[in-house]
Design goal:
homodimer, Arc Repressor Mutant, subunit A, 2 domains, 3-stranded antiparallel β-sheet, 10 helices, DNA-binding
Chain lengths: ~220, ~220
DNA sequence: CCGGACGAAATTGTCAACAATTTTGTTGGC
DNA sequence: GCCAACAAAATTGTTGACAATTTCGTCCGG
């Protein structure tokens, strides 16, 4: 009963466990395919097994862990093939978002995207792949946000969470940022021009290139 | 996805509760926005609250129920706007599946689709909108299946589950089957011709028409 | 030496009681 | 008569113990 993590305040146990576990997986603290024993996790996070269990069910639905009846949970390993299939889904969904965004953005939002574009240029010129990767992620997030497509955004966040490991791998590949940069700038330009079809095409071209890069 | 709807056999309590509750919601037995009290459900299905609770968490992740902290669960109501947004996601994802299917089907699968096409023709001619609706659903399912895109299929099943109510409403609209039929036949033809781009275009045209029909 | 049956350990699934929270109905003051 | 504080009821969140299932090591027979 000594609840180490503030018993009364704010977050409830399940949400807390969910957040911590999710972060741990996304951060890579948990090795791929690592077994997730409910008792261990419960002790580690200072919550009870029921909370961990609820969190695991949630994470299974998000595709981050795999659960087998009476056999336990493990962090899901995303093969390259799966990563490609996931990115194909991203391709069409982000294409949709880009088209909708191009039709809906206001001037301030366009300026925001262009700022991101110059920042990305700088990051590539300075040879900082990690900064570039972050900006990359933020650009995609902003476009989704500006599209106002709540359903699509939800699906995409689910999909993206499954790709963290692959994203890292991709970002550190030499020469990759240069190619990626041009594609991103094209996306920004198309949206800035309020051209839905061009925006969708640009996103598709970009993610097609990502798929090719993934296949090595 | 571990849920094919067999609520009879030696399933475990949570899976049983999940199946029954899911069916009840999809079947429309639960009124929209109806409150789902854990105790009542537990008694109704003859399982304990813990199982119901686990099932509810699952259903929340599937987008079928809404849960608010300390306030309980309710069957989620999908507004027309949301239905449109969901169908827009279906549009791009099913387009992807159709393109992949067109590139991957074998002769037997094509024959299967064409059989469905003639059955649909017959159902429309006979004025049986319910039969037609079922065939419609099966056609979409088969195309997804033949595409081999596991990730996309998973997303689409999630999305479709949220639309049951609207699908019913749409199927019974006079004149709708006729228009829908032609679009479906075009999809079948494009896939039979192994033309990915035409298949994607046909699916997009069909679902665009569905979106327009939804907006009344 | 190998294969299958048996049993113990580990792990998840289920249960009923308890605590915390929100909602609702009521009472008192203005 | 209306609003706020308060108390009671309903409902969800949490806890620890118990049951069912699977896994793994061991032993026996061939």
């Amino acid at each position: 009963m000594p609840n180490q993590a503030r018993p009364g305040t704010g977050e409830q146990a399940k949400q807390l466990a969910l957040g911590q576990l999710r972060q741990a997986i996304l951060r890579g603290d948990m090795a791929p395919a690592q077994r997730l024993v409910e008792n261990e996790l419960a002790e580690q996070f200072g919550v009870t097994r029921a909370s961990i269990r609820a969190a695991l069910i949630d994470l299974e639905a998000q595709g981050l862990v795999e659960r087998i009846r009476n056999r336990g949970s493990r962090v899901r390993v995303v093969t390259v093939e799966e990563a490609v299939a996931i990115t194909e889904c991203r391709l069409v969904l982000e294409g949709l978002c880009a088209a909708k965004a191009a039709a809906a953005v206001d001037d301030g939002q366009v300026a925001r995207l262009q700022d991101l574009g110059t920042a990305m240029r700088k990051a590539v010129a300075a040879g900082e792949p990690l900064t570039y990767s972050d900006l990359n992620h933020e650009l995609h997030t902003r476009i989704r946000e500006f599209s106002g497509q709540r359903t699509a955004v939800e699906l995409l966040e689910r999909l993206n969470a499954q790709l963290v490991r692959h994203r890292f791998q991709l970002a550190l590949r030499p020469g990759r940022p240069q190619q990626s940069l041009n594609e991103h700038l094209a996306m920004i330009e198309a949206i800035g021009a309020r051209d839905p079809q061009a925006a969708e095409e640009a996103v598709r071209a970009h993610l097609t290139s990502v798929i090719e890069a993934l296949r090595d």
